[in-house]
Sequence to fold (337 residues):
Amino acid sequence: MNEQLVSMITQLVMEKMTNTSGTSSKQIATPAEEQKQPLIKLYESGANHTEEIPSSQATSDQPFIKLYQQASSTQEYPHSATIEDHSSSEEPAKAFRFEEENLSESVQAAKKHTPARIGVGRAGTRPKTKTWLKFRLDHAAAVDAVYGEVTEALLQKLNVFQVTTRVTDKEEYITRPDLGRRLSDESKELIQSACKARPTVQIIISNGLSASAIEENVQDVYLALQQSLSNVNIEIGTTFYIDKGRVALMDEIGELLQAEVIVYLIGERPGLVSAESMSAYLCYQPRIGTVEADRMVISNIHKGGIPPLEAGAYLGTVVQKILQYKASGVNLVAKEG
Fold:
């Protein structure tokens, strides 16, 4: 027992005995059989504490102080051994798996032909956890694609220089598309001084609405397009990169360089299926005021759509056709027909 506790109990007992020593002889002569309980009782419990009985309630058959003694910490309990034995015999934890989806044959067949979220089921009125987490992941990837930037390392690999539009930041790029359709004054001067004038084909690159698309696809598309055009001896101008450009910017560039054909590789607006999709816009002699019907586009260029290398080779054949018919867009379709 704790020495301090013993000292306190002893002091309390001595004080009680002193107080009772001045009582009448009648009280002293009380028969011993009436004092059925001792002044101090010991109890075994889970905590050490003392319980003092108020003097107004103390009687000869109640102890003045009750002691509770904590069981020894070295005592072994049968259930603890049982727990240890159980834990040692447990199997290794298995990786969490979502419940298997029980889909009809028609839904399974449809899912093979589209990446859309069909047949995902629900839990009550809400989507299932797996569906919701996948949605949040795809949404985060789309946001990263819009606000991301093309790395300097990629531009060095492609050996291209960079120009800017009249957009100052991403927020302005999203809310003011018109500013992304015009080059800054410094960029105009740089393009006119660094680029070859009147090229047959001018290739330009821009992050657009998805920097991730450029990072993932542009190198393979660009190299395959270069090879395809070189094989048929088509002259290529000086390629450059535009930060935060819009599609119609190709009109101003065509006006500056007087290019015969422009191929514009640009990141597409990301969706919840893919945030890495790139498009290639083509136009014959684009100038300020060119209408959208004169443009052509090869879209959905990514690993889950048109493979980048295949897209680059195909673009070379489309450029050949544009030069042959001297038209693009609906005019090309009309002449081919």
Remarks:
- The radius of gyration is 43 Å.
- Residues 211-231 form the longest helix (21 residues).
